[in-house]
Amino acid sequence: MTDHVTIVRLAHRGPASMMFQPVFPAKDPRQLVGLIASPIIWDEIFENVFNKDVDGVDCVLESETKVHTYNIAKGKVESFAEGALQQTHLQHLGQMVNLTPAELHEMGAPMYKLAMYPSDDFQKTYSTDNPRNGAIVAVSVMIFAAILFLLYDYFVRREFEERKNLLDAKRQFMRFISHEVRTPLNAVVMGLNVLKSELQGLFESGEEIVQRRRSMDHQPTKQREEVSQRRRSMDHQPIEKGSSQSSIKSGSFKIESKGGSGILEANPLQEEKRVDLEPSSSTRRMSLRGSGVNNRGFRECMGLLDEIQKGTNAAVAVLNDVLNYDKIEHKSLKLELSLLPVWQDFERTIAEFRIPAAKKDVSLNTVFEPLHTETLSFRDVERATLSRSEDLPDAVKNLCLVGDSSRMAQVLRNIISNALKFTAAGGSIEAKLGFNPLQDHDKRKRVEKFKLNSGREVALERQGTVEYRITDTGAGMSEAQLQSLFGEGVQFNANQLQAGQGSGLGLYISKGIVEQHEGTIGAESEGLGHGTSFTVLLPIYAFPADQDLEDSHLDQRGVGSTVSTSSAGAEKLRLLVVDDALSNRKFLVRLLSKKGHECDQAENGQEAVDLVKKSMEEGNAYSSILMDFEMPIIDGPTATS
């Protein structure tokens, strides 16, 4: 049939094909009534198939008798040649498809195949090193990240090690301060107390001699002559040699050297000897010292000792601040929890500052301002203002804090001492304590459990918050100063307002203590020269009905109170003083012995344990033990347990 069909082409670029489709009636498929001819021009098909950017593809058209190769460049057929002209080294990348269906081929139709192969130009255009480069970059990034992580880990570990070493060194330094610096300073304080006590005793004895001398001057002449004669006979008495205690009796005094201790005591003679003895020349010299001739010098000496003691106490206070700061920084500040009668403790602590405030001509007022509510069985809802804790209603007095009594007193003392320090003469300080009950939306009773220092566990209902508010008319603060007030080592105009005293850690430590009690602390001021108001808020609880508040506070009553040093009528105790510092033991034993107490000493915890066991076996147990904390062999807590 191709002899009767002509394919007209614009340009001859390779073979063409003709496809005939028979036309037959639907009822008689065997009757041929016509043919539909469709030309297939391969080069035109290729040009319509490939994108114009395709370059370097060899299309091999293969029939049963012939093979033709078309080269595609820029999406068009660039050249045509007979034979299979694809590049053999890229033949394995070729793709082949049968153009003649298998069923037609079985019916006798010729087989046409089309294969496409990339050329070097195609490989050059479409092959890329990006995957390899990407892999190299990815591996490089991973290696770099690993190296960076290792370096980071190294430096972080190094920093951690340095911090650990620094913290260890800091702890060692703090222990050094506590043991090697604070302990000697405490010894100085005790030594000053001993010295002041001894001087005061000598002075009072001299005053007593003067009084007796004056009374003797009024005796009859004959009696005075008898006293003088007896005195002369006593002055010529020989002193016994070889005794362990030598005494030189002189009038109303006995100067003794006991056991080589080197301690001089001025002890009045017995009453019967005082009546008929005339003071000797040495006694008269002592009498002159106590008779007012040198009273002024004595008072100046005592004043100097007071100043030295005040400076030493200030140094000890700074060291205590540093140690407390370290504990707060490391979250190691231990609270000895007990149930505290907040109103009485507040009043007791404020009372400590009344004399210093009066000396500075500063008015110090205490105000109790509890809110009367129906929840506390009050009829009115007015705010009552009282000046004494004993006037408070029982429902308010029976509210308590759960905290460390000494630490809370430390916070209050710090705030009040600052207020007194920055308030000029003629100013005033108001110490107010109020109670804020739970609001209506918080009326649900919140029961919280606590383990007290005594080991007892209690469950208490929270009633609200107690509010300490200390307001002064002092120097005041600016907004910038208020922002940094509770920071580390903060002091404002230290030389001008504080005479260079203080560590600047007091408020920082107070903040840490308050927060450890689950409270808040803040300050307000209207500006420089307008005073400052400090506020402390702490949770307050209803005291258990089955226990007396005062009984629960027995172990804390001594905190903040002034203890009388008078030994009149006091019970004489058998005490054990345990301290590895010899000076501390000497001074403490001296102070206690002057009060009539019997004292034994131990320089470490092991000796203390042995002495306690021995005393218990002998049935003569110690009344009390004064135990140091840091000691060799066995420390204080271990020995105590």
UniProtKB/TrEMBL annotation:
PROSITE patterns: HIS_KIN (PS50109), RESPONSE_REGULATORY (PS50110). InterPro entries: CheY-like_superfamily, HATPase_C_sf, HATPase_dom, His_kinase_dom, HisK_dim/P_dom, HisK_dim/P_sf, Sig_transdc_His_kin-like_C, Sig_transdc_resp-reg_receiver. Residues 241-254 have a biased composition (Low complexity). It is an enzyme of class 2 (transferase). Residues 210-239 have a biased composition (Basic and acidic residues). This is histidine kinase. SMART domains: HATPase_c. CDD domains: HisKA (cd00082), REC_hyHK_CKI1_RcsC-like (cd17546). One of its GO terms (cellular component) is plasma membrane. Residues 574-641 form the Response regulatory domain. Its EC number is 2.7.13.3. Keywords: Kinase, Membrane, Phosphoprotein, Transferase, Transmembrane, Transmembrane helix. The modification 4-aspartylphosphate is found at residue 628. Residues 210-291 are annotated as: Disordered.
